[in-house]
Amino acid sequence: MPVPAFGYAPVYEGELLYQVEGEGPGLVLIHAGVAHLGMWDEQWPAFTAGHRCLRYDCRGFGGSRSRPVTFNNIKDLLDVMDHVGMGRAALVGCSRGGEIGLDAVLEHPDRFSAFVSVCGGVNGYNAYDGVEVPPVAMALVDEIEKVWKKRTPEEARQLWELEARLWADGPGQPENRLPPAVRARLMALNWVNIQRQSEGARAEEMPIPSALRMWDIRVPVLAISGRFDELFCQRSMAYLAREAPEGRLVEVDSAHLPNVEQPEWFTRTVLDFLAGVGA
User: Fold this and answer.
1) Each residue of 23-50: pLDDT tens digit?
2) Range of the domain at 183
3) Residue 157 pLDDT
4) Final residue before a domain boundary, out of 167, 195, 223
5) Are residues 113 and 145 in the same domain?
6) At 49, which CATH number?
7) Is 1 part of any domain?
8) Given this model, what pLDDT does residue 197 score?
9) Are 117 and 95 a contacting pair, CB within 8 Å?
10) Do 144 and 48 share a structural domain?
């Protein structure tokens, strides 16, 4: 029976919204924590032209559904891939999607052919170690955490704007750095997550942090870093590119979601990388 191009994939005690399209080598896209699967709209036509592409909403984000259980992000990813019949694939993850992607590449090297981390993290790597964190960034992060803990509907818009200042504008950057339409698009991607009430689901931690296993990465890696992004992400991307056996780093004039800010550059860069490594 053919798999629907758009639907829900069953996972442990939940369902994850997904879309699959195109023909060719597999390509999986994992969204950022301030977005949902729609963040890849600008890339979708070009990516699906030469790949069988899968994007999905992670548990707790976008249109996903879950009971209040402890779950495994990697198991969720593999369950969605299995649901649509995708065996081996290249993997692109942004922000927390990049951290999940790196964990998956290490745990299941047989399922992935290449990895692109976009302004992502490295599980277990303290990117702030030995450096002075810019006060503007720390103040924003502290304020976001304060408002997030209250998590009342009345403060949703305040949280929305604070996260836009950190992740869309970039810490210390002027609010008019971006064209209004681009900033509005970035904010819209996060609004569905801001409005969601917590379902109480919690992700399992990795038994061995990825930062302690970098030499085990068996696929080519591209780390994309935004020059206006938060320092933690910039240093994490530099670390990943430096420590991965086949790692490389590229920088772009962008904050946290370069695929939305610089869509043409991003699409070309990722496709060139995949073509160069045969993925």
Assistant:
1) 999 999 999 999 999 999 999 999 999 9
2) 135-195
3) 85
4) 195
5) no
6) 3.40.50.1820
7) no
8) 66
9) no
10) no
Of the residues 195, 225, 245, the one at which a domain ends: 195
Instruction: Tell me what pLDDT residue 200 has.
Output: 82
Are 89 and 115 within one domain?
yes
Q: Which of 122, 95, 92 is nearest to 219 (CA)?
A: 92
**DSSP codes of every residue in 138-205:** HHHHHHHHHHHHH--GGGHHHHHHHHIIIIII-TT--TTSS-HHHHHHHHHHHHHHHHPPP---EEPP
pLDDT tens-place string over residues 109-142: 999 999 999 999 999 998 888 788 788 888 888 8
Whole-number pLDDT of residue 195: 81
Euclidean distance between CA atoms 191 and 34, whole angstroms: 8
The closest alpha carbon to 277, from 257, 238, 253, 247, belongs to 247
Q: What is the pLDDT of residues 203-260, one digit of tens each?
A: 999 889 999 999 999 999 999 999 999 999 999 999 999 999 999 999 999 999 999 9
- Tokens of residue 42, six digits: 């600008």
Q: Which letter does DSSP use for residue 85 in this model?
A: T
What residue type is 96 in one-letter code? R
| Paired sense of beta strands 6-11 and 14-21, if any | antiparallel
Q: According to the 3-state scheme, what is the secondary structure of 190-258?
A: HHHHHHCCCCCCEECCCCCCHHHCHHHCCCCEEEEEECCCCHHHHHHHHHHHHHCCCEEEEEECCCCCH
Give the amino acid at 162.
L
Residue of 67, 81, 68 lying closest to 30 (CA atoms): 81
